[in-house]
């Protein structure tokens, strides 16, 4: 089959690879109809996270079940499904508690599994024609048959539940004020989820105009951090010492604002942006690294968090990969009911063959490439 293969930083190509095959009676094979490029793929694409040449990316997948093992009972060939990016067993302590990003079975020695992601287990990605899905009864989320809402449903694999999870980690409640750092697809989904939950005011911080415009379009207030300290801009607009809840949807690849010698990690901005005793949800990625590691981004995440100021303001924070599977069913039902339309963030659909070009453009944050869906069947 054809798949997008990683060769090294900024180098990906569409090539023939071995077809996946079922390895356990609990597996399914899915023919991918839509798979998305994610900001998380850029950590490997840009070489911030080491990835082995030859791996196939892709953790935002949906498609049609092609075949199931003898132990699979809830889906069958022909069913349309979305595959939230957590590869999880469904029966360990964390899965039972809904912490599906931290499955204790699939990736021993590391919390949680994902398709096509280094460090998150041996699972090949779905930027390909076919994908093997382990524990298919748990990992396939059934969708209505047909092709309706394809763009909305594709976002259930990651960024919609991840944005929603950010609001859960931050504890957003109706009527509250929220600041989201990052207007990438994840930040926009966090802002959208906060508005769905009834937040009274949502600020979205970035410096990329077309992304800030999308934030404004859904009813959030855009804050361009090149125009001055984003925290001060938000406090001026509110006339208060900060928002109730803050969300980090940037992570350790933050770029520097005007006047900053090096990019202050977004978490330190959030510590000032959130009112004393408020709370923060961090879904932007910080990967562990030794302090001496040759990766300045990771070392920053490790060393520069202003814990003194965090303590002084009495804040709370939740972090981690999102338990995408824990929310996917409810968010699917909101889409079906016409109450949510996350696809406002989707700007492009291209055949898999154009994926290398789409990666380069998404990485450059080009207008029209805020969220790219790949269609392996076309
Ligand atoms: P993205 O790279 O498209 O978006 C990041 C945005 O942050 C960009 O628009 C960029 O301009 C902006 N930015 C950079 N520096 C900034 C700063 N100092 N202040 C404010 N904004 C700044 O990526 P994305 O797809 O939206 O993903 C965002 C982050 O979420 C990534 O780190 C990704 O790995 C992570 N992620 C986490 C999970 C999870 O489960 N926790 C899931 C998906 C993605
Ligand atoms: Zn993703």
TrEMBL record:
Pfam families: ADH_N, ADH_zinc_N. InterPro entries: ADH-like_C, ADH-like_N, ADH_Zn_CS, GroES-like_sf, NAD(P)-bd_dom_sf. Residues 25-144 form the Alcohol dehydrogenase-like N-terminal domain. Residues 185-257 form the Alcohol dehydrogenase-like C-terminal domain. It comes from the Bacteria. SUPFAM superfamilies: GroES-like, NAD(P)-binding Rossmann-fold domains. This is Glutathione-independent formaldehyde dehydrogenase.
